[in-house]
Specification:
α12 packs parallel to α13, α12 runs antiparallel to α14 and α16 packs across α17. The chain is elongated. With about 650 residues, it is mostly helical. It contains 21 helices and two strands.
Length: about 650
């Protein structure tokens, strides 16, 4: 109904000719009605009558027609649905819209490219850090381990930075580059997803693992099978019975710790039927590999001293009726060695060692790194390593693998010493002490002990007094320092030597670079144990000692050369700094002299201006009094002038 009324109202407006009305100019000046009407103008009576008639007609029509809309809402509601032709969009608007869309697409494309490049570089940096650090420990999932805290930081040399900056198209700059330290990022187990691990281990035997613990668990299940496969063809190249027997002796004899074990093994090999030699070679090869791994692990991190299995690896039970060598005759069964190896594997990533001491993340990484590197150096009969070296590099990282290589060198040196002692023992000569007890000649032992202190540069205030005290001390213990179930004889000798040193107030001082590590004390303990050993060195051992001293001297010379190079570098740097400071001092002095000349000139100007001010102040000191006199004089003149006028 409201819409119909509005339509009628608009139709009435059309009848009145409102659509044809000219628009009103909003900026036009207002019309003064009073000014526009001329009161003196003449009025046409006919025109006035016509206007009155038209007004009365309009009024009568308005009475019969409905009223106009009362509000704007009714007007809006009354508008026809077809308001007219649609608005036009200009060509400029279309071009701008197109350009905006193009810019948005270009920006999106560049942003995607930039993000992809950043992701690619971040991925490469992550792979680089992973190659250097190796897989994380499980404990690094919740926090940073000691291995990450003490990891060496990479220092980027200023010269290298400048060269790299130039190669990448950087503009030449006069500023010096500063050394930058790169800290490797923390790698957590959750950062290594399945796809990444599959890609990483694809070229290293597959079976991806995210942590060191998982790799040790995998190795624990795989190692017995790997040992069996490596030992299966150990006797393939031995064709005759003699060759097979010699191969058995070569596998077993290095593991013997006593002459009795050597003789028993030799007799057992000779009595073994030729049909059993092939299977025994495989057994002996596996036993040899197990013993080598355990010996190296024990030299790296000693195990429970109550565990004596490694001393009896080739010990045999008494033969029954001329029985030859069989797996059952070994005192230490092969399963016991496998169990011991599993314990060492578990301990490598355990939170505590066999003695209950806490193990840090760094200790775990070092142990796992040494274990895997040692396994990678063991080869089977086919010449293939027991553990892939490339996988070891991926698991523990380049840094720990390098450390493991250095450590294995020291371990092999200890093994060499043990074999040299075995050689001397087999020769059966150059013995100083009898096997049952130690220090049968106190005078000789005192002389050797004093020589050892002098060789290691341990200060002895009174050498003659010390020699006398040592001779008397061990003369009182003559025949008492023998091995028993509680403690070996050489350990007792070492304890007595330490007590003697404490009594004589002789202190083993460490070198500056080894303070806190007791390196010299450990070396002294080893040498004392060698003095107390019943297997005195022969020519080979003495020759080895001479070689060791030569190596020590060469190492010291090399260290001094390095120190000399460092001092030369420091001297060069200090000289450069001095020249730079001298040049800076000359420039600063010249600037200071020039500034002082300017200061002097300004001081002279200031003095002159102050003098002028002072003189002006003197001249103006009586200006106020003079002004008052002039004022009185002027007033008198004005009064005089006014009096004359009157």
């Amino acid at each position: 109904m409201k819409k119909k009324k509005a339509d009628d109202a608009f139709r009435d407006d059309d009848d009145l000719g409102l659509d044809d009305a000219e628009p009103v100019d909003a900026d036009a000046e207002p019309v003064d009605v009073d000014a526009a009407v001329d009161p003196d103008a003449s009025v046409d009576p006919d025109a006035v009558a016509d206007d009155d008639a038209m007004i009365q007609g309009l009024a009568s029509d308005a009475v019969d027609k409905p009223a106009l809309p009362a509000s704007a809402d009714e007007v809006v509601a009354a508008e026809p649905e077809d308001a007219g032709p649609p608005a036009r969009t200009s060509m400029l608007t279309l071009v701008l819209c197109f350009l905006n869309v193009a810019v948005v697409l270009a920006f999106t494309f560049l942003a995607v490219m930039d993000f992809a490049a950043r992701q690619r570089w971040a991925y490469l940096v992550f792979r680089y850090d992973l190659a250097a650090q190796g897989l994380p420990l499980q404990e690094e999932e919740k926090g940073v381990s000691a291995a990450h805290d003490v990891a060496p930081r990479m220092t980027l040399d200023p010269a290298w930075l400048k060269e790299a900056y130039g190669k990448r198209g950087g503009k030449a700059v006069n500023e010096k580059f500063r050394a930058a330290e790169y800290e490797p990022q923390r790698i957590r187990p959750q950062d290594l997803d399945d796809d990444f691990l599959k890609e990483t281990f694809k070229a290293h035997g597959g079976e991806p693992v995210p942590t060191l613990e998982k790799e040790i668990a995998r190795l624990k299940g795989k190692l017995p099978g790997l040992l069996d496969a490596a030992a299966a063809d150990a006797g393939k190249k031995a064709k005759t019975v003699g060759d097979k027997q010699e191969l058995l002796r070569a596998l077993l004899f290095p593991l013997a710790t006593t002459t009795k074990q050597v003789d028993a093994s030799d007799d057992a090999v000779a009595a073994t039927p030729k049909g059993n030699l092939d299977s025994l070679i495989a057994v002996a090869s596996k036993r040899r590999m197990l013993a080598d791994i355990l010996h190296r692990m024990d030299d790296f991190r000693p195990y429970d001293p109550n565990e004596k299995s490694l001393e009896k690896v080739v010990a045999l039970e008494p033969a029954k009726g001329g029985e030859g060598l069989t797996p059952e005759r070994f005192v230490v069964k092969q399963d016991q060695l496998v169990d011991l190896l599993n314990k060492r594997l578990d301990e490598s990533v355990a939170a505590k060692d066999w003695a209950g001491n806490e193990r840090s993340g760094l200790e775990k990484r070092r142990t796992v790194g040494f274990l895997l590197f040692a396994l990678s150096r063991l080869k089977g009969a086919d010449g293939k390593p027991l553990y892939p070296p490339t996988r070891a590099e991926v698991i523990v990282g380049i840094r720990e693998l390098t450390q493991a290589a250095d450590t294995l060198t020291l371990v092999l040196e200890k093994t060499e010493n043990r074999l040299l002692a075995a050689i001397q023992r087999d020769r059966g000569h150059d013995y100083v002490y009898t096997p049952d007890y130690r220090v049968t000649d106190p005078q000789q032992f005192a002389d050797k002990l004093l020589a050892l202190l002098e060789r290691m540069e341990i200060p002895v205030p009174d050498k003659d007094g010390f020699k006398k005290a040592a001779r008397q001390h061990f003369a009182d213990l003559l025949g008492k320092l023998s091995s028993d179930a509680a403690q070996p004889a050489n350990a007792k000798v070492l304890a007595e030597v330490k007590a003697l040193l404490a009594k004589e107030k002789i202190v083993i001082t460490e070198d500056k670079e080894n303070v806190g590590f007791k390196v010299k004390e450990a070396k002294f303990d080893r040498e004392v144990l060698r003095l107390a050993d019943d297997r005195e060195q022969g020519f080979v051992g003495k020759h080895h000692e001479v070689i060791e001293r030569i190596r020590d001297l060469a190492a010291r010379i090399e260290a001094q050369k390095i120190r000399l190079d460092e001092l030369k570098g420091q001297e060069k740097e200090l000289k450069r700094q001095y020249e730079e400071r001298a040049t800076q001092e000359k420039e600063t002095r010249a600037k200071l002299i020039a500034a002082r000349e300017q200061t002097l000139k300004k001081a002279q100007d200031l003095h002159r201006l102050q003098d002028e001010v002072y003189r002006a102040q003197i001249e103006l000191a009586g200006a106020s009094e003079m002004n008052r006199r002039y004022e009185r004089h002027i007033r008198q003149l004005e009064l005089t002038k006014k009096g004359r006028k009157r």
